[in-house]
């Protein structure tokens, strides 16, 4: 196993602009999803969602996965399909997906 393979981690960052007035509903869906999806997925290493106090109708998702297969399992789960691809997706104006690989970790 190479050093890259040993410490590989796929990081996904999603800045998400919500339709106006949907912050509370979006946060409720995220809170419902977290223990049902990321909370039980073996390859999901972390799942964090941030809100910006001065920027309403915006969420920032920062997620870490063991590998691409773990991310695919995450997005293919029943909880993801129902809550994120289903209900949450209806609240989104737009989002951009940024993939990152771990460079340094202390």
From TrEMBL:
InterPro entries: ABM_dom (IPR007138), Dimeric_a/b-barrel (IPR011008)
Keyword RNA-binding: no
GO molecular function: monooxygenase activity
Sorted UniProt keywords: Monooxygenase, Oxidoreductase
Pfam families in the record: ABM
ABM domain segment(s): 10-102
Keyword rRNA processing: no
Protein name from the UniProt record: Antibiotic biosynthesis monooxygenase
